[in-house]
Amino acid sequence: MDTPRRSRSSLADLSFYLLVLVTGGLFAWTLQVTFFRAPIEATMGIVQKIFYFHVPAAYSMYLGAAACFVGSAAYLVVPRDWADALGRAGAEAAVCFGAIVLTTGPLWAAKAWGYYWTWDPRLTTALLSVLVYVAYLVLRSFAGDGEGERKFAAALGVIGAFNLPIIHFSVQKWSGQHPAVITGKGGGLGHPDMYLALGLAFAAFTLLTAAFLWTRVRVELDRARLARAEEDALDLGLDDRLET
């Protein structure tokens, strides 16, 4: 009876280790192309290479937020541990990669604009989005683990997703100083190796996000099972005392 379950667990572990190995190799390749093959941009110099990490990190933040939305929406429809785990893992990914975005962005801006921060529409909406997911995690960490707290956090996870399109289209709708480099309006990508570095970075960050979500979902599911087992053990102990 336990053999198929153990086989599935072993296969899942092997797949995860393979994912981590491929992710590490892809990051090594990305670093090699970024710093040794892609030419230095004429205007911004070496600082432009922040771009190869800033933009993929923003994409990974979107992936984490999307995972949080899916898990949160599913939990509101049919409360299940896997949905809560996915929502929480997605929020953590959004905060983690959002922190990378909000760190690399000002470093790039200091060279491009001469100052680290401005209340540009895209910067402001990105900061707001990260704060929403920080609020989600604070709620899940300190407000308890009851059904009501989970559903309230899930509602926040759903609401937070509505800010993502605003971040994406803020440059087109409200102008601002944030460049649109990939579409050509911001300039900066004029060599095939630059596009190669960017493509590899996107792939590496995508796999890193998948590994992050996979790990956190499994941890949260194990934690939920452990908490349920402890509750069952307490109930059994109480029943035994009542019988005696």
Helix content: over 70%
Biggest beta sheet attributes: none
- CATH class placement: Mainly Alpha
Rg result: 22 Å
Give unreliable regions as ranges. none
CATH architecture descriptor: Up-down Bundle
Question: Distance between the terminal alpha carbons, to the nearest Å?
Answer: 35 Å
**What's the number of structural domains?**
1
H/E element order: HHHHHHH
- CATH topology descriptor: Four Helix Bundle (Hemerythrin (Met), subunit A)
Number of strands: 0
Q: Determine the number of helices (DSSP H or I, runs of at least 4 residues).
A: 7
Give the DSSP E fraction (strand runs of 2 or more residues): under 5%
Category by helix and strand content: mainly alpha
pLDDT averaged over residues? 84
Global shape:
flat
Structural notes for this entry:
With 244 residues, the protein is an all-alpha fold. It has a single domain, classed as Four Helix Bundle (Hemerythrin (Met), subunit A), CATH 1.20.120. It has helices spanning 2-37, 51-77, 81-112, 121-142, 147-161, 164-174, 192-243. Helix 2 packs antiparallel against helix 3 (81-112), helix 3 runs antiparallel to helix 4 and helix 4 packs antiparallel against helix 6 (164-174). The chain is flat.
Primary descriptors:
7 helices; single chain; Four Helix Bundle (Hemerythrin (Met), subunit A); mainly alpha; 244 residues
What is this entry, summarized?
The chain contains 7 helices and no strands. It is an all-alpha fold and 244 residues long.
